[in-house]
Amino acid sequence: MSTRTPKVRRPATSRGGASGGQTKASRAARPRKARPTPEIDPDSQPAVAAPAPQAPAPPEQAAGPVRVTAAKGRPMLVWVGKRPLAHVTAFPAQPVERFSVPDVAPTPQASSEDWPALYPQGGLLFHGDNKEVLAHLLANGFRGKVNLIYIDPPFDSGADYVRKVSLRGATGTTKIDGEQYTLGEQIQYTDIWANDNYLQFMYERLLLLKELAAKDGFVFVHSNTDRSHYLKCVLDEVFGSSGFKNQIVWKRREAHADTKGIGNVHDVIFAYSCDPDSRLVRSYVPYDDDYLVSHYSDRDEDGRRYQLADLTAPGPRPGLHYEFKGVWPPAGRVWAVVREKMKQLDQAGRIVFTSEGRPRRKQYLDEMPGMPVHDVWADVFPINSQALEATPYPTQKPEALVDRVIRLGSNPGDLVLDAFIGSGTTAAVAQKLGRRWIGCDINKGAIQTTAKRLQAIMREQAVEARTSAEAGEQGSLLGEDAGKERPAPPAQLSFSTWRVNDYDLQIQHNEAVNLACEHIGVQRTRTDAFFDGTLGRRLVKIIPFDHPLSPADMDELRRELDGRPDEDREITLVCLGMEIAAKAAIDDWNRLRKGRNAANRVHVIELRRDPKYGSFIRHEPARASVKVERRKDRLHVTIEEFISPSIVERLRQQAGVLQPTIDDWRAMVDCVMIDPAWDGGVFNVALADVPERKTDVVLGAYDLPAPAGETTVAVKIVDMLGEEVLTTVRV
Predict the structure, then answer these.
(1) What is the chain's Cα-based Rg?
(2) What is the band of 509 on the pLDDT scale with cuts at 50, 70, 90?
């Protein structure tokens, strides 16, 4: 007999919220009889934008519907709009960029017989919606092959993260806001959604991650305390409650005052596995000072610290109950080692008799691995702004935190995946620990930041590899500190960057909306699914720029307001142009709404004709002047000039009446990369100029070997806002 869930009376809602209505509180339902899982028609997926010109994709790529196994765990969390993910469409991936350290090969352990033939050996970095990237990985050979998944997804916290960047150079201290997030990026980076949408978002991605995880692999999910209880229920449903391993508490900051309650100083990390019998790797941390004082205060004649450890164990156990130098173990206990081992310890001077005549074992500090890792981490500190690993991402997690996660859930040579790569910390730590890695992100700036970070790490590893080889050293390519675990050699010294579903083409409209709002002065409203923001007291709706304002848009506005009977504010419609029929419809609309305080009176800003806003900002792409010369077997590349109108415009907006001046164009450049034999498709990085410090600037002039015969030299310049300029010269 099945147990039915009692009906819950729900409050009345109005239309127009983040999901077409106010969000209903999510709640855990009682176990109930399983129902057939409906399948999602793959034909209902959004159309794929036409790809930009590029090299032909390898024929091995798979595309189309990817089967997703239904979740079978209990209990199940219920939310408005919950739907299973039976199928997801896999789109092809286009190679964009490749980087490898020349003349240095990775260690033999990095080779993998089951690595999909579609991809070269090395790290993989994907730009695109992670749902589409995960589907692509499932369709192309990675199902069940990921040993460790660590994700630090958005927390649904209401925060609005905007990347802050500074111009380069000793005097380049002016900070400017990074590009505003597009609509798709807002979902993942500004934490703006209602609770139900957030849970559906996480549910779908966790179902895909489960398919990618190896049978004995682990999944670590980072969350804050506001949503961790919801995520715990979703994780139990996807992986089964038997897959739960640990709930880790990370103390991320010191105590602070909170007027609403007790100060919140921690995040939560959930650890799950597809196999209930799998075990995390035993890891240790150094003893703290208090523990050393209380347990290792004694020193021998050589100065080695030790403690006297118990030599007994619970009994009875055959062979461990015997007399040692006239002493028997206490009642109910036995010796901890066999008779022969006890004699060896005694001969080595490792047994000391106490004043009561009981034998104790000398346990030296330098022979102990440390304290086993527990589920409360108060010894990992967050990143401050001066840290060497700091990037412009406010949600960046410290390498020490991710290091501990990776050590707990994987071994050298294993494959690590982060579907929200952000500033690239997971890939960076995995690379240092000798793991293979895959990362993806919807934000192009995140991909650029991660790529730069990995290039620097791989170059450093290559230098240390050469140094070790010349000195005849064996072991770690990363070096080692006395008394610490020897780090694993790198699993790869190359990586490639890919784009899934031509994501760049999909976001152009949203970028135009952002620019329009900035130009007009619209205050963006992140929690309203229909209106884009406010202008004074008026609601603002941006009409899609791919068509003029039409009567159909007015009908949509009318339906929206019908669902908001208490909404009386005036409305401004922003468009590029307007149909004559739409103007007549607006005139009829306003004729019924006379008076100064008339509700829902409509105003129009037609950007192409409006006398006040007619100078709508057109995006001017960055430009560069590059000179390339061939001198015998060398190429000489000189960047003569570079200008980023976007940076200049943002500086002008922030400076007010003062006009900004940039004395050195290199202050606007984040990095320079050169491909001396560009094939018109994949950009192979042969030289990368990435300044180590914020006060450094790029060189601007470069010398590198020239390929035999005529070649196309491609120079990629990335400005501080992440905009790329690609210049090609045939020599």
Answers:
(1) 31
(2) low
Please answer whether residues 54 and 459 qualify as being in contact, where contact means their C-beta atoms are separated by less than 8 angstroms. no
429 touches 403 (CB < 8 A): yes
Q: How far is CA 473 from the centre of its chain?
A: 36
Q: Which of 41-55, 73-87, 401-415, 466-480 has the lowest mean pLDDT?
A: 41-55
Give CATH for domain 60-156+193-283+376-473. Answer: 3.40.50.150
Q: How far apart are the C-alpha atoms of 154 and 45, rounded to whole Å?
A: 24
* Peptide bond preceding 359 in cis form (omega within 30 of 0): no
Contact 595, 565 (CB under 8 A): no
Report the alpha-carbon distance of residue 471 to residue 595 in Å, rounded.
87
Is it the case that residue 154 has pLDDT exceeding 80?
A: no
Judge whether 651 and 702 are in contact, CB under 8 Å. no
Burial 664-697, CB ≥16 within 10 A → b, else e = ebbbbbbbbbbbbebeeebbbbbbbbbbeebeeb
Burial class (CB in 10 A: 0-12, 13-18, 19+), 537: exposed
The CATH T-level fold of domain 623-730 is Immunoglobulin-like (2.60.40)
- Please choose, from the candidates 72, 220, 85, 78, the residue with its C-alpha nearest in 3D space to the C-alpha of residue 146: 220
Helix (H, G, I), strand (E, B) or coil at 413: coil
Structure tokens belonging to residue 688? 């990368």
Tens digit of each residue's pLDDT (9 = 90 or more) over 565-576: 999 999 999 987
High-pLDDT (> 90) share of the chain, %: 39
Helix 425-432 vs helix 444-471: crossing angle, to nearest 10: 10
Q: For the chain, give every domain's residue range.
A: 60-156+193-283+376-473, 287-369, 508-606, 623-730
- 273 and 218 in contact (C-beta within 8 Å)? yes
Question: In the 8-state DSSP scheme, what is residue 327?
Answer: B
Question: Is the model more confident about 104 or about 246?
Answer: 246
Q: Please, which residues bridge with residue 66 across strands? A: 88
516 backbone dihedrals φ, ψ, rounded to 5°: -65, -45
- Alpha carbon 110 to its chain centroid, in Å, reads 24
